Every structure is written in structure tokens, then in C-alpha cells.
Amino acid sequence: MPAAVAEELSESSIPVARPVVQVDRLSKRYGEFYALRECTLAVQPGDVFGLLGPNGAGKTTLIRSLLGHLRPTSGSATVDGCDPQVDAVALRRKVSYLPGDARLPRHLRGDAVLSFFAELHPEGDLRRSREVAERLELDLRVRVAMMSTGMRQKLALAVVLGPMTPLLILDEPTANLDPTVRAAVLDLVMEAHAAGRTVMFSSHVLSEIEDTCNRVVFLRRGLLVRELQMRDLFQRHRISAALSSGRTVQSIEIPEAFADCVTVTSLRDSKDSDSKDSDSKGSESEGSESRVRIDTSGDLSPMLRWISELGLKEIRIEPLGLRAVYNDVHRGTDAQSEMPTR
Ligand SMILES: Nc1ncnc2c1ncn2[C@@H]1O[C@H](COP(=O)(O)OP(=O)(O)OP(=O)(O)O)[C@@H](O)[C@H]1O
Prior knowledge:
The protein is of the alpha/beta class and 342 residues long. The protein is built from eleven helices and 13 strands. α5 (126-135) runs antiparallel to α6 (149-160).
């Protein structure tokens, strides 16, 4: 079939939604320093999209570039089809944004702050903002200057969660909140998702990202080093075990069928395996017990027979959560680390 016909067919028969956020090779440089380098990503309608990365990784730089608050050095970004550098006014109708360092007028009481921002935002909704404040158990009679850090964060959330914009961008929404309020904020995020809105948020709390996001990207030193669908993460497992006497890690053969989804690592000591792993098979030190770590991706069930025949004992199987991926990315040992984005 000629490519043009195939393209026309696919366009007419399978509706492809336009990404809400499209970022192409976006860079932001300060002098010689890249806060963001060649970042490419797409956020699809209805995504709850997580941004992860250590301090200074470039998360806020990315977010602020999407909002037109920063002018990128190169590359491009669109938000619901708008160029943030050109269509700043149109963009305000589409996005509600919680900055990481939200500044609120200190002389006003909570309720006056909500009224002020509800009037300011084209989609502002005072009733909804008050509802959010009530759910977060915030006393709106208190002046901002007299509020605790957590109270100010709740107020900022009530401001931002008022407008029913199609896109919600939250920079560390749960910072400074106690566990109960954190859970309430995540509920609000999931309600936004259920209402068909798209959410992008950054957090340092991995469990929050695991619980709410369907997709996550990892930034490190300005580079987007990893992109993950959460459903794939839930299909990743780590098996830690001791080898029966006479067995060695070198003797473990990975069957052809699992070659792309299994990695085997030799561990030197059973007690602190993660910090003492070696890079490859082998190198067990003399006198220590031979231990092995097997990381798998994809459905574990067809691999179980092979694993059962490896002569392993003291087997522990755990889901390979974001923590493990984060550690790998942070250490730069992740296979995809330091690769330019797509
Ligand atoms: N105006 C600026 N001039 C020079 N460097 C800057 C400027 N703004 C940010 N940076 C640098 O850019 C890098 C990325 O900063 P950014 O705020 O995007 O990180 P982040 O991932 O949001 O970090 P955090 O988790 O700490 O909030 C940091 O090294 C920061 O020091």
C-alpha cells in the first residue's frame, strides 16, 4: 500500500489525539550551563504525567518553559497547540499552574486571596476554590502572614485547583504537607484525571508518582534520561536469592526467549546486596556466600520454570518499583542514562 494511502487511512479510521503538551528538543542554557538539554516528550490527553529527578535536574525549568515564563535557548514546545512564547493569553485559559515557590499576598486573609486569584484567572471559580480549601481543612479567616508553610501550600492549592482548565501543572504539590493532607491532594489530582483533565506534576515522593501517574519521565542534569509507562513498571520484578552450593552465577544461562527482559547480577553479600552488587556476572569474593539478583521485565509467569531450575534458595521476589529505577537513573547506571532524548 502506498505510504500516502496508508497515512490517509490511518488518519481517517483511527483518531489520533493531539498531545496536550509537545516538547521538541527543548534546551535552556545559562552561559555554558544547560539547565535543560534537548528535551523531547509528549503528554497525551488524560495523562497523569510525573516529572522525577534529583534537585537541580531541570523539572522546574521544563515546566516554566511550557508556561512561557522562560525563553528556551533552542527547541520548541506547544501546550494544547499554543506556543507559550507567542500565545501567553490563550495559554492562561488552558493551564492552571502551581509553582514550587508559590508567593501569596501576605496582608490578605485566605478567603480574600481566593477571591483575588479567582478574578485574575480567566477560568477562576471561587466556589470551587473554597471547596478545595474546605477539603484541605484550611481556615480561610487567617491572614497569609500568620499562616504556617503547610497552610500557605494548602491555600496555593485551593487557588490552583479552582479553575477547571484542561491542563493542570503542579510543581511539588505535596511539599510541606502532612500525610493526611498529602492523601487529600492526591485524591484531588485523581478527581481531575477522572474529569478528563490532563495533569503534569513533579514530586520527590516516589510513592505519590507510583500511585497516581500513568507515565513518568526522569530528568538528570538537564537531560531526560528515562521515560516509563507505569503499567510496564508494575511488570518488573527483582529476584534476590542465594545460590545452592556448587552453583555459580557464571553458570546461569539466560534462555534466548528472555534475553531482552532478564538481567543477572552477582551480589557479594546477602546483607546489603544493593550497595555491594558487582557490575556483571562473576567476581564473588572468596569466603562469601554466592548471591544473585535477577531483574525481569514483562510477565514473570513464563520465567518461573527457568528460575526454579537455577538452584536458588532463600528466594525473595519483589516488584521493582520506582525506587529501584530512580536509584539506577540517579547513579547513572541505568541503561538509558545520559542518552539524548529520542
Ligand atoms: N536563572 C538561573 N541562572 C542560572 N542557573 C539557573 C537559573 N535557574 C535555574 N538554574 C539552574 O538550572 C538547574 C535546573 O534547575 P531547576 O529549578 O529546573 O531544577 P529542579 O529539577 O526543578 O530542582 P528542584 O527539585 O530542586 O526543584 C539548576 O542547576 C539550577 O541551579
